[in-house]
């Protein structure tokens, strides 16, 4: 018998749950007000840490030991390790693909092929097709998305709108791909069949995507003019002067997409893509490398040192054009460390909120007012969005609400695919719109645009949850089964 008995756990109250949320919202608001776009470079992390401490204090008040709370935080961080190692390798990939000429080649051909009037819609559609093929919104944004932002700069179009188009397309394709982790996770949590889940999602996803494309087409034709032909020629000439441009530079991209389609896990696939980019740089960009290396220790060592540096510190170039320098420089694992810090602090907060029952308290309060099918589905979507903001991870935003609402859907005679679709409509779709969420932090680190800036242009991600609510209240494609209590009564007879 322990010499020190643990205090009994006291159930959290609604006020208990509200206090850390209020602290978080106030501090995040202050961070954005005081630091602007730089809020994710440290201020948001501090806000999340103070909110975590607040939630921990409430947990201690309710009888939890510090050891249990600390273990919950450790487990929360552990959940993010898979994403973190992928994130670090994506940084290396971007760096080597800039050095190898892969990204510059995509920009080069994109400037000559894509019409400015159709650019936003084309970006959305291209990312949708790629993401559906490989099942990864993250990989799509880090490769095709980065290149499309470069093309947008060359065409004189808005980068924030382009980022919104990239996010819209990437998440549309990811959501409908049987290769996607979230597309498999949602039906698994809800108890639905994968392909029935995908088929059921088409009713909200496809109309939302079509509406988004129409808006992007309209914006493209009313973009207020594109870059002058002289500026495009200037960018093309700069690319030709500094890089060896050719279709063979796209081999690293083709290999990465092939590996993703073949269902190779993300980390080894992206690692192979990064290494192949480094090899391609040494094979095809010798002039560029020679202009960058320190040959005092010999040319071979200079080559090796530059490529090694590109993996951890990214690539930078001086073309004489500041905008092009910013466009063609970046990447490296070091550039992802701020995002890694943000993900870790966000998941610590989410883990404490879940462990102490504070998150569950919100859901129970919501269920008290969710009387109709429309209000239940709306409550599920709201809970997914709230969990994305509080727990800061799309997987938690699918698993936690799914676990909490599953029995309620069954009791009300709603087929599991209704829940699985709703989890995606509210959880998967909204995750990149929140800067401190793992997905929002990742997208900012890759696209270099704050989610608060591109969120209003991620039309698919904004329309889809709204359309799901409309469907729910009008009873459109809401599939039913025999309610759980009636099944139990029939079995008793």
In short:
This protein is mainly α. 75% of the residues lie in helices and 0% in strands.
Description:
With 493 residues, this protein is mainly alpha-helical. The protein has a domain at 83-313 and 323-335. Helices cover 75% and strands 0% of the residues. It contains 24 helices and no strands. It has helices spanning 14-35, 43-61, 66-100, 102-113, 119-134, 137-155, 159-176, 181-190, 194-221, 229-242, 251-261, 266-284, 286-292, 299-313, 322-327, 337-355, 358-367, 373-390, 394-411, 416-428, 438-447, 451-454, 459-474, 484-492. The chain is globular, with a radius of gyration of 24 Å. The model has no long low-confidence stretch (mean pLDDT 85).
Largest sheet: none
The assigned structural class equals mainly alpha
Mean pLDDT: 85
Question: Could you estimate the helical fraction of the residues in percent?
Answer: over 70%
- The number of helices is 24
The total of beta strands comes to 0
């Amino acid at each position: 018998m322990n010499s020190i008995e643990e205090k009994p756990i006291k159930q959290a109250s609604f006020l208990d749950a509200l206090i850390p949320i209020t602290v978080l919202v106030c501090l995040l608001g202050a961070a954005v007000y005081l630091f602007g776009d730089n809020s994710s470079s440290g201020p948001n992390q501090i806000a999340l840490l103070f909110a975590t401490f607040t939630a921990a204090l409430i947990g201690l008040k309710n009888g939890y030991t510090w050891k249990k709370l600390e273990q919950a935080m450790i487990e929360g961080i552990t959940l993010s390790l898979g994403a973190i190692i992928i994130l670090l390798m994506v940084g290396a990939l971007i760096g080597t693909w800039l050095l190898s000429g892969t990204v510059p080649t995509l920009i080069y051909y994109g400037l000559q092929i894509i019409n400015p009037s159709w650019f936003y819609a084309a970006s959305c559609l291209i990312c949708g097709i790629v993401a559906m093929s490989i099942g990864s919104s993250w990989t799509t944004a880090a490769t095709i998305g980065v290149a499309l932002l470069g093309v947008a700069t060359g065409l004189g179009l808005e980068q924030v709108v382009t980022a919104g188009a990239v996010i819209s397309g990437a998440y549309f394709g990811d959501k409908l791909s049987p290769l996607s982790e979230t597309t498999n996770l949602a039906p698994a949590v809800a108890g639905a069949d994968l392909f029935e889940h995908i088929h059921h999602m088409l009713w909200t996803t496809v109309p939302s995507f079509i509406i988004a494309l129409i808006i992007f087409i309209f914006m493209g034709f009313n973009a207020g003019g594109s870059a002058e032909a002289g500026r495009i020629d200037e960018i093309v000439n700069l690319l030709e002067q500094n890089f060896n441009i050719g279709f063979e530079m796209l081999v690293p991209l083709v290999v990465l997409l092939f590996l993703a389609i073949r269902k190779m896990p993300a980390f080894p696939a992206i690692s192979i893509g990064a290494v192949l980019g480094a090899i391609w740089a040494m094979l095809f960009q010798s002039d560029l490398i020679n202009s960058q290396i320190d040959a005092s220790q010999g040319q071979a060592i200079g080559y090796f040192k530059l490529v090694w540096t590109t993996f951890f510190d990214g690539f930078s170039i001086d073309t004489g054009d500041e905008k092009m320098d910013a466009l063609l420089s970046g990447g490296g694992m070091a550039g992802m460390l701020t995002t890694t810090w943000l993900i870790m602090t966000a998941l610590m907060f989410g883990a404490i909120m879940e462990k102490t029952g504070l998150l569950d308290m919100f859901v129970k309060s919501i269920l008290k007012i969710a009387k109709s099918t429309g209000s239940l589905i709306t409550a599920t979507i709201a809970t997914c969005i709230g969990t994305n903001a509080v727990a800061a991870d799309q997987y938690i935003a699918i698993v936690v609400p799914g676990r909490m609402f599953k029995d309620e859907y069954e009791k009300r005679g709603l087929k599991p695919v209704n829940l699985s679709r709703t989890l995606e409509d509210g959880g998967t779709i909204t995750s990149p719109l929140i800067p401190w969420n793992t997905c929002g932090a990742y997208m900012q680190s890759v696209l270099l645009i704050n989610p608060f800036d591109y969120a209003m242009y991620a039309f698919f991600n904004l329309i889809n949850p709204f359309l799901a609510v409309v469907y729910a209240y009008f009873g459109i494609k809401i599939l039913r089964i025999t309610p759980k209590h009636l099944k139990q009564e029939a079995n008793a007879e």
